[in-house]
Amino acid sequence: MYNMMYNLFYKKFIIFLFMISIIKIGGTSLKATQIQGFIFTKQDRLRIQLSRFNKFQVLGKDECCTLINKWKQENIIDKEYRILLDKGIRQLCDKNIFPLYINRINSQYIIINLVSHDNVNIINILDNKKNTWSIDKAIMEYHIFLVENNYNPNYYELKTTSMKHFLNMFILNLLSEEENKLIFFRKNDYIKFLEKDTEIKNRE
Predict the structure, then answer these.
(1) Total domain count for the chain?
(2) In-domain check, residue 14
(3) Which of 19, 106, 183, 197 sits at 20 to 30 Å (Cα–Cα) from 34?
């Protein structure tokens, strides 16, 4: 009798331990899944930061393609322009690409960004053909925003047929590391900004 009760108790105890192990493993798996769900990429972080900056409009890729197709329909006779827009749509297929829409009066542009590590490469700028104002000021504001938020903007991969865009990007690429540090410090550490600015002025 005693042996029977012992065996019964032993079996129940083993089953109990087995159930606990399943719960633990399941809990760990669930926790890992939850953690994975909350991991943000650098692209996600940049999107969130830009969404708080009301000068630019962060577009989803589907919205962006809808807008580009609208521009294509408005210029259905201009084959060369539509080919340029199609290239932009193909670039959007890369998972590390995200578009940024500048929507100002007579000045509508889609900036196509490639994000890698802390670098933001502007690889294309698509224009609404009806534009009558240039993008100069908006691009400078975007450059300053990126530097202030500790990103490294560059424009070496920019594919554009617009000489004006090319020259704008060329000038921004010529900004020295020191000048970009001043932009960063001015927003994030004003004392360092003053120290650096004084140092540069004393050198001149």
Answers:
(1) 2
(2) no
(3) 19
